[in-house]
Design a protein that fits this description.
The protein contains 12 helices and 14 strands.
Length: 432
């Protein structure tokens, strides 16, 4: 999810990554957690048209899949898998229009759309597709915001920077959703816009778990405000991060899903659109200081959602995945945890979890010294992907140039042959 690229890997590297992915998938025998989702009140059946429009970042491109390790349009990852599920559900063919861009942020997704009539941003291209094919489109999926968060991930960035990025994500996502829905209405399209939230490849010990929670909460909130279905894959990856992503391979696509992970994303989308969401429960309780006094405005979160305590120190998290061992944290302010707990909810149950904050969290982040989660930082990972893509593009350009020269030589030879043939015919004519 780092930088834009579109070129396929060479066959040798594709084969090698495919073999590694297959090993990881086969080695992961542990059953995955069920997918969870947000369904707006009154949600009915999903309208499935002849065309599925996919929008987003490198997840929409299928980066990390064995079929297309550095991404390809509509032929790999969750987009291809979800398209197959839609076709089976609808009983007719569903073509894919995948406009996803690797490295896309909420800002680059919008790009210059509002200032340039000839904009080629992803938003501009999505709106053009809706105008031209609106009656046939259904559904539209969108995953966006992960790269914004990655840009400020880790101890090199302050909590204030992370919160500012999250505020921008929320604002831009609101703009994107509003604009897409307005165009769908204008085109009289039956298509629904479905949001896809994020998993955390770093697991429950991620020092930025609070920021992941706020990212997913922002996606939840925008979905709820606009009456959208929100697929939430976070819980499905809990405990199987190493098996469902490339994190264990120390490679340039480390944070991305492998085939198993993409299957989990497909399950998350299917659960909110054509299947049955898994069971959820609620978590509630009080947050107090060591003297027993309630703390207002404290934060309580797990990776999929976040909430702030009321003036009396109480909190409530609804729609929490059941039957999954989740790590929950609380802090007086964003940026780190003062207290932690683990729990597994029973379906439909409300669990009580109180927290006492000792005040040791100053809003900073735990040290990341020696932490290998980032694999030397995602900027360098993105640069490595970009370099590989550029090399592949250059090789492709060279091959096309060679092919062009060969074609030209063949054409000249053919032309020369025809000229000689013509001269021979002229010689055979009975000129006076």
């Amino acid at each position: 999810m780092a930088v834009p690229f579109r070129a396929p890997l060479g066959s040798t590297l594709r084969h090698a990554l495919g073999l590694v992915c297959a090993v990881l998938v086969l080695a992961a025998a542990r059953p995955a957690a069920p997918a969870h989702a947000y369904l707006p009140p009154g949600s009915g059946g999903l309208a499935i048209g002849g065309e599925y429009l996919a929008l987003g970042d490198s997840l929409a491109r299928g980066v990390g899949s064995s079929a297309c390790p550095i991404g390809c349009s509509g032929r790999a990852g969750y987009v291809a898998g979800f398209a197959r599920q839609l076709a089976r559900e609808a009983g007719h063919d569903v073509s894919v229009r995948d406009l996803g861009v690797s490295g896309e942020t909420t800002a680059s997704f919008i790009g210059d759309y509002f200032t340039n009539a000839g904009s080629r941003s992803q938003l501009a291209r999505a709106l053009a597709a809706i105008r031209d094919h609106g009656a046939a489109i259904g559904p539209v999926t969108l995953d966006i915001g992960g790269n914004d968060a990655l840009d400020v991930r880790g101890a090199d960035h302050s909590a204030a920077e992370k919160l500012a990025a999250l505020a921008t994500i929320r604002q831009n996502l609101e703009t994107i959703v509003f604009t897409l829905q307005r165009e769908l209405r204008a085109a009289n399209s039956p298509a629904e816009l479905v949001l896809l939230a994020y998993y955390d490849p770093f697991g429950d010990d991620d020092p930025d778990l609070w920021a992941m929670a706020l990212l997913n909460q922002a996606i939840r909130d925008v979905g709820a405000e606009h009456g959208l279905r929100v697929a939430e894959p976070y819980a499905a990856f809990v405990g199987v991060e190493q098996q469902a992503t490339w994190m264990s391979c120390d490679c340039v696509i480390n944070i991305h899903p492998n085939d198993r992970g993409y299957a989990l994303l497909v399950d998350a989308l299917a659960a909110v659109t054509i299947g049955q969401p898994a069971a959820v429960g609620s978590l509630t309780g009080m947050v107090r200081d060591p003297s027993g006094a309630p703390i207002a405005g404290a934060h309580v979160w797990y990776g999929g959602a976040s909430v702030t305590t009321a003036p009396d120190g109480s909190y409530r998290l609804d729609g929490v995945p059941a039957n999954v061992a989740l790590h929950v944290e609380a802090g007086a302010s964003a940026g780190g945890a003062d207290a932690t707990a683990s729990f597994t909810l029973r379906p439909g149950a409300t669990a009580i979890q109180n927290f006492v904050l000792d005040g040791t969290n100053d809003g900073g982040l735990p040290s990341a010294e020696g932490d290998t989660h980032g694999i030397a930082g995602f900027a360098r990972i993105g640069a490595a992907i970009a370099k590989a893509a550029a090399r592949t593009a250059a090789e492709g350009a060279r091959d096309r140039a060679v092919a062009g020269v060969d074609a030209a030589r063949t054409g000249l030879a053919d032309l020369a042959g025809r000229a000689i043939e013509g001269l021979d015919r002229l010689r055979g004519l009975p000129f006076p």
